[in-house]
Protein backbone atom coordinates (compact mmCIF):
# COMPACT_ATOMS: atom_id res chain seq x y z
CA UNK A 1 0.00 0.00 0.00
CA UNK A 2 1.40 3.39 -1.02
CA UNK A 3 2.22 5.89 1.69
CA UNK A 4 0.23 9.14 1.86
CA UNK A 5 2.09 12.22 0.66
CA UNK A 6 0.19 14.58 2.96
CA UNK A 7 -0.98 14.65 6.57
CA UNK A 8 -4.26 15.67 8.20
CA UNK A 9 -2.45 18.42 10.07
CA UNK A 10 -1.29 19.98 6.80
CA UNK A 11 -4.86 20.03 5.48
CA UNK A 12 -6.15 21.50 8.74
CA UNK A 13 -3.56 24.28 8.48
CA UNK A 14 -4.55 25.00 4.88
CA UNK A 15 -8.20 25.18 5.91
CA UNK A 16 -7.35 27.59 8.74
CA UNK A 17 -5.35 29.88 6.43
CA UNK A 18 -8.30 30.10 4.03
CA UNK A 19 -10.99 30.37 6.71
CA UNK A 20 -9.18 33.11 8.65
CA UNK A 21 -8.07 35.04 5.60
CA UNK A 22 -4.32 34.68 5.84
CA UNK A 23 -1.30 33.17 7.56
CA UNK A 24 -1.10 35.73 10.37
CA UNK A 25 -4.74 35.35 11.36
CA UNK A 26 -4.57 31.54 11.14
CA UNK A 27 -1.40 31.47 13.23
CA UNK A 28 -3.15 33.44 15.96
CA UNK A 29 -6.23 31.21 15.87
CA UNK A 30 -4.15 28.00 16.00
CA UNK A 31 -1.66 29.40 18.50
CA UNK A 32 1.21 28.56 16.17
CA UNK A 33 3.96 30.63 14.58
CA UNK A 34 3.28 32.11 11.17
CA UNK A 35 6.49 30.63 9.83
CA UNK A 36 5.40 27.10 10.81
CA UNK A 37 2.15 27.56 8.89
CA UNK A 38 4.00 28.90 5.85
CA UNK A 39 6.33 25.91 5.96
CA UNK A 40 3.46 23.42 6.33
CA UNK A 41 1.53 24.76 3.33
CA UNK A 42 4.67 25.09 1.20
CA UNK A 43 5.62 21.50 2.01
CA UNK A 44 2.09 20.30 1.20
CA UNK A 45 2.21 21.99 -2.21
CA UNK A 46 5.64 20.52 -2.88
CA UNK A 47 4.56 17.01 -1.89
CA UNK A 48 1.48 17.17 -4.09
CA UNK A 49 3.26 18.88 -6.96
CA UNK A 50 0.48 21.44 -7.32
CA UNK A 51 -0.05 25.04 -6.28
CA UNK A 52 -2.87 25.43 -3.77
CA UNK A 53 -2.50 29.05 -2.73
CA UNK A 54 -1.29 32.18 -4.41
CA UNK A 55 -0.54 35.45 -2.61
CA UNK A 56 -2.12 38.60 -3.99
CA UNK A 57 -0.98 41.64 -2.09
CA UNK A 58 -1.08 40.60 1.54
CA UNK A 59 -3.76 37.93 1.24
CA UNK A 60 -3.53 34.29 0.18
CA UNK A 61 -6.09 33.10 -2.35
CA UNK A 62 -6.97 29.58 -3.43
CA UNK A 63 -6.10 28.48 -6.92
CA UNK A 64 -8.83 26.63 -8.88
CA UNK A 65 -7.05 23.35 -8.09
CA UNK A 66 -6.78 24.41 -4.46
CA UNK A 67 -10.54 25.01 -4.23
CA UNK A 68 -11.28 21.45 -5.36
CA UNK A 69 -8.77 19.85 -3.01
CA UNK A 70 -9.75 22.04 -0.05
CA UNK A 71 -13.38 21.06 -0.46
CA UNK A 72 -12.47 17.37 -0.45
CA UNK A 73 -10.13 17.85 2.51
CA UNK A 74 -12.95 19.24 4.64
CA UNK A 75 -14.87 15.98 4.25
CA UNK A 76 -11.75 14.08 5.26
CA UNK A 77 -10.98 16.08 8.40
CA UNK A 78 -14.65 16.03 9.42
CA UNK A 79 -14.77 12.25 9.11
CA UNK A 80 -11.60 11.87 11.17
CA UNK A 81 -13.04 14.16 13.82
CA UNK A 82 -16.22 12.10 13.97
CA UNK A 83 -14.17 8.92 14.16
CA UNK A 84 -12.16 10.25 17.10
CA UNK A 85 -15.36 11.37 18.81
CA UNK A 86 -16.90 7.94 18.31
CA UNK A 87 -13.82 6.30 19.84
CA UNK A 88 -14.18 8.53 22.88
CA UNK A 89 -17.89 7.75 23.13
CA UNK A 90 -17.25 4.00 22.96
CA UNK A 91 -14.70 4.30 25.73
CA UNK A 92 -17.33 6.01 27.88
CA UNK A 93 -19.94 3.33 27.10
CA UNK A 94 -22.01 5.49 24.75
CA UNK A 95 -23.75 3.19 22.26
CA UNK A 96 -22.70 3.47 18.59
CA UNK A 97 -26.18 2.37 17.47
CA UNK A 98 -29.75 2.00 18.76
CA UNK A 99 -32.73 0.04 17.42
CA UNK A 100 -36.29 1.16 18.14
CA UNK A 101 -39.29 -1.09 17.55
CA UNK A 102 -42.41 0.96 16.71
CA UNK A 103 -45.90 -0.49 16.69
CA UNK A 104 -47.23 0.66 13.31
CA UNK A 105 -50.22 2.52 14.78
CA UNK A 106 -47.99 4.71 16.97
CA UNK A 107 -47.98 8.24 15.46
CA UNK A 108 -44.63 8.75 13.75
CA UNK A 109 -44.81 12.45 14.59
CA UNK A 110 -44.22 11.65 18.27
CA UNK A 111 -41.11 9.63 17.50
CA UNK A 112 -39.80 12.21 15.02
CA UNK A 113 -40.10 14.98 17.62
CA UNK A 114 -38.16 12.88 20.15
CA UNK A 115 -35.49 12.05 17.57
CA UNK A 116 -35.18 15.74 16.61
CA UNK A 117 -34.21 16.52 20.20
CA UNK A 118 -31.99 13.44 20.35
CA UNK A 119 -29.99 14.37 17.23
CA UNK A 120 -27.84 17.22 18.66
CA UNK A 121 -27.10 15.13 21.76
CA UNK A 122 -26.61 11.71 20.15
CA UNK A 123 -22.79 11.87 19.65
CA UNK A 124 -23.05 10.13 16.31
CA UNK A 125 -25.23 7.24 17.50
CA UNK A 126 -26.99 5.55 14.57
CA UNK A 127 -30.72 4.88 14.97
CA UNK A 128 -32.72 2.16 13.24
CA UNK A 129 -36.53 2.20 13.47
CA UNK A 130 -38.31 -1.11 12.88
CA UNK A 131 -42.03 -0.93 12.17
CA UNK A 132 -43.87 -3.88 13.65
CA UNK A 133 -47.46 -5.08 13.89
CA UNK A 134 -49.39 -6.84 16.66
CA UNK A 135 -47.38 -9.78 18.05
CA UNK A 136 -44.41 -8.76 15.90
CA UNK A 137 -43.60 -6.09 18.49
CA UNK A 138 -43.79 -8.69 21.25
CA UNK A 139 -41.40 -10.89 19.31
CA UNK A 140 -38.87 -8.05 19.04
CA UNK A 141 -39.07 -7.59 22.81
CA UNK A 142 -38.86 -11.27 23.74
CA UNK A 143 -35.87 -11.87 21.44
CA UNK A 144 -34.05 -8.70 22.55
CA UNK A 145 -33.87 -7.39 18.99
CA UNK A 146 -34.54 -3.78 19.97
CA UNK A 147 -33.22 -1.38 22.61
CA UNK A 148 -36.55 0.44 22.94
CA UNK A 149 -40.00 -0.84 21.99
CA UNK A 150 -43.30 1.00 21.60
CA UNK A 151 -45.82 -1.75 22.15
CA UNK A 152 -49.55 -1.96 21.41
CA UNK A 153 -51.92 -3.58 23.90
CA UNK A 154 -50.53 -5.57 26.82
CA UNK A 155 -46.72 -6.03 26.83
CA UNK A 156 -45.29 -9.55 26.98
CA UNK A 157 -45.62 -11.27 30.33
CA UNK A 158 -42.82 -10.34 32.73
CA UNK A 159 -41.98 -6.96 31.12
CA UNK A 160 -42.69 -3.58 32.69
CA UNK A 161 -44.23 -0.91 30.48
CA UNK A 162 -44.76 2.84 30.74
CA UNK A 163 -48.11 3.97 29.23
CA UNK A 164 -47.75 6.55 26.44
CA UNK A 165 -51.09 7.14 24.75
CA UNK A 166 -54.18 5.53 23.26
CA UNK A 167 -54.89 5.23 19.54
CA UNK A 168 -58.41 5.12 18.13
CA UNK A 169 -59.02 2.71 15.26
CA UNK A 170 -62.07 3.31 13.08
CA UNK A 171 -63.80 1.33 10.35
CA UNK A 172 -63.52 2.89 6.88
CA UNK A 173 -64.45 2.49 3.25
CA UNK A 174 -64.77 4.65 0.13
CA UNK A 175 -67.96 6.73 -0.38
CA UNK A 176 -68.47 4.68 -3.57
CA UNK A 177 -68.35 1.36 -1.74
CA UNK A 178 -71.71 -0.47 -1.29
CA UNK A 179 -71.27 -0.44 2.49
CA UNK A 180 -71.32 3.37 2.52
CA UNK A 181 -74.93 3.47 1.29
CA UNK A 182 -76.31 1.00 3.87
CA UNK A 183 -78.13 2.30 6.97
CA UNK A 184 -76.07 2.44 10.17
CA UNK A 185 -75.20 0.61 12.30
CA UNK A 186 -74.02 -2.22 10.09
CA UNK A 187 -74.61 -5.84 10.98
CA UNK A 188 -71.42 -7.94 11.10
CA UNK A 189 -73.04 -10.47 8.77
CA UNK A 190 -73.40 -7.78 6.12
CA UNK A 191 -69.80 -6.72 6.66
CA UNK A 192 -68.61 -10.31 6.23
CA UNK A 193 -69.86 -10.36 2.63
CA UNK A 194 -67.31 -7.74 1.53
CA UNK A 195 -63.55 -7.61 1.06
CA UNK A 196 -61.62 -6.85 4.24
CA UNK A 197 -58.16 -5.28 4.19
CA UNK A 198 -55.87 -6.28 7.08
CA UNK A 199 -52.33 -5.37 8.02
CA UNK A 200 -49.95 -8.31 8.25
CA UNK A 201 -48.65 -9.34 11.66
CA UNK A 202 -44.87 -8.96 11.46
CA UNK A 203 -44.11 -11.82 13.87
CA UNK A 204 -42.33 -14.75 12.26
CA UNK A 205 -44.34 -17.12 14.41
CA UNK A 206 -47.70 -15.50 15.04
CA UNK A 207 -49.56 -17.55 17.67
CA UNK A 208 -53.02 -16.57 16.41
CA UNK A 209 -54.89 -14.23 14.09
CA UNK A 210 -56.01 -11.03 15.78
CA UNK A 211 -58.70 -8.54 14.83
CA UNK A 212 -62.08 -8.79 13.11
CA UNK A 213 -61.45 -11.41 10.42
CA UNK A 214 -64.92 -12.76 9.62
CA UNK A 215 -64.93 -11.51 6.03
CA UNK A 216 -65.21 -14.22 3.39
CA UNK A 217 -62.58 -12.42 1.30
CA UNK A 218 -59.49 -10.84 2.83
CA UNK A 219 -56.40 -9.07 1.43
CA UNK A 220 -53.34 -8.86 3.66
CA UNK A 221 -51.07 -5.83 3.31
CA UNK A 222 -47.81 -4.75 4.87
CA UNK A 223 -48.65 -1.13 5.76
CA UNK A 224 -51.39 1.48 6.02
CA UNK A 225 -50.35 3.32 2.85
CA UNK A 226 -51.21 0.28 0.74
CA UNK A 227 -54.57 -0.06 2.51
CA UNK A 228 -55.39 3.62 1.91
CA UNK A 229 -54.60 3.36 -1.80
CA UNK A 230 -56.94 0.38 -2.18
CA UNK A 231 -59.71 1.94 -0.08
CA UNK A 232 -59.67 5.12 -2.18
CA UNK A 233 -60.26 2.99 -5.29
CA UNK A 234 -63.52 1.81 -3.78
CA UNK A 235 -62.35 -1.66 -2.82
CA UNK A 236 -62.89 -3.20 0.61
CA UNK A 237 -63.14 -1.90 4.17
CA UNK A 238 -60.45 -1.61 6.83
CA UNK A 239 -59.74 -0.63 10.44
CA UNK A 240 -57.24 2.26 10.43
CA UNK A 241 -55.89 4.72 13.03
CA UNK A 242 -57.96 7.90 13.13
CA UNK A 243 -54.89 10.18 13.12
CA UNK A 244 -53.79 8.75 9.75
CA UNK A 245 -57.06 9.35 7.91
CA UNK A 246 -58.31 12.68 9.26
CA UNK A 247 -57.46 14.48 6.01
CA UNK A 248 -59.15 11.82 3.85
CA UNK A 249 -62.28 12.00 6.03
CA UNK A 250 -62.36 15.80 5.84
CA UNK A 251 -61.99 15.75 2.04
CA UNK A 252 -64.66 13.07 1.65
CA UNK A 253 -62.27 10.53 0.15
CA UNK A 254 -63.21 8.03 2.87
CA UNK A 255 -66.24 7.57 5.10
CA UNK A 256 -66.52 6.14 8.57
CA UNK A 257 -68.68 3.06 9.05
CA UNK A 258 -70.71 2.37 12.17
CA UNK A 259 -70.64 -1.31 13.16
CA UNK A 260 -73.18 -2.58 15.61
CA UNK A 261 -71.44 -3.21 18.94
CA UNK A 262 -67.98 -2.03 17.77
CA UNK A 263 -67.85 1.27 15.90
CA UNK A 264 -64.38 2.14 17.23
CA UNK A 265 -61.50 0.58 19.11
CA UNK A 266 -58.98 2.14 21.46
CA UNK A 267 -55.53 0.57 21.63
CA UNK A 268 -53.19 1.55 24.48
CA UNK A 269 -49.53 2.06 23.57
CA UNK A 270 -46.65 1.79 26.01
CA UNK A 271 -42.87 1.97 26.09
CA UNK A 272 -40.88 -1.14 26.97
CA UNK A 273 -37.13 -1.55 27.58
CA UNK A 274 -36.46 -5.24 26.84
CA UNK A 275 -33.18 -5.39 28.79
CA UNK A 276 -32.52 -2.76 31.45
CA UNK A 277 -29.21 -4.37 32.39
CA UNK A 278 -27.64 -3.60 29.01
CA UNK A 279 -29.27 -0.18 28.53
CA UNK A 280 -26.66 2.50 27.86
CA UNK A 281 -26.75 6.29 28.19
CA UNK A 282 -27.91 6.91 24.61
CA UNK A 283 -30.87 4.55 25.02
CA UNK A 284 -31.74 6.14 28.38
CA UNK A 285 -31.69 9.58 26.82
CA UNK A 286 -33.91 8.62 23.88
CA UNK A 287 -36.29 6.79 26.22
CA UNK A 288 -36.70 9.88 28.35
CA UNK A 289 -37.21 12.11 25.31
CA UNK A 290 -40.02 9.83 24.10
CA UNK A 291 -41.58 9.89 27.57
CA UNK A 292 -41.30 13.67 27.70
CA UNK A 293 -43.19 13.86 24.41
CA UNK A 294 -46.09 12.38 26.37
CA UNK A 295 -45.64 14.64 29.40
CA UNK A 296 -43.39 12.31 31.40
CA UNK A 297 -39.73 12.22 32.44
CA UNK A 298 -38.91 15.90 31.81
CA UNK A 299 -36.74 16.31 34.89
CA UNK A 300 -34.60 13.31 33.95
CA UNK A 301 -34.02 14.61 30.43
CA UNK A 302 -32.97 18.03 31.64
CA UNK A 303 -30.57 16.45 34.12
CA UNK A 304 -29.03 14.30 31.37
CA UNK A 305 -28.59 17.30 29.07
CA UNK A 306 -27.13 19.45 31.83
CA UNK A 307 -24.64 16.71 32.68
CA UNK A 308 -23.57 16.44 29.03
CA UNK A 309 -23.14 20.20 28.71
CA UNK A 310 -21.06 20.27 31.89
CA UNK A 311 -18.84 17.45 30.63
CA UNK A 312 -18.34 19.23 27.30
Write the layout of secondary structure elements.
Blueprint: H1 8-20, H2 23-30, H3 34-48, E1 53-56, E2 59-62, H4 64-91, E3 97-103, H5 108-118, E4 126-132, H6 135-142, E5 148-152, E6 162-173, H7 188-191, E7 195-199, E8 217-221, H8 224-232, E9 237-241, H9 242-250, E10 255-257, E11 264-272, H10 281-293, H11 298-311
Parallel strand pairs: 3-4, 3-5, 7-8, 7-9
Antiparallel strand pairs: 1-2, 5-11, 6-9, 6-10, 6-11
Classify the helix fraction into a percent range. Answer: 40-55%
Count of distinct structural domains:
3
CATH level-1 class of the largest domain: Alpha Beta
Please give the number of β-strands: 11
The CATH fourth-level homologous superfamily of the largest domain: Periplasmic binding protein-like II
In the CATH classification, which architecture of the largest domain applies?
A: 3-Layer(aba) Sandwich
Radius of gyration, Cα only, in angstroms? 29 Å
Largest sheet: 9 strands, mixed
Net shape = elongated
How many helical stretches?
Answer: 11
Low-confidence stretches at least 5 residues in length (pLDDT < 50)?
299-312
- The chain-level mean pLDDT equals 86
| CATH topology type of the largest domain | D-Maltodextrin-Binding Protein, domain 2
Proportion of strand residues: 15-25%
Helix-strand pattern: HHHEEHEHEHEEHEEHEHEEHH
Helix vs. strand class: alpha/beta
The first-to-last residue Cα distance is 38 Å
Oligomer: single chain
Family: Belongs to the LysR transcriptional regulatory family.
Pfam family, one: LysR_substrate
Domain HTH lysR-type: 7-63
Organism: Shewanella cyperi
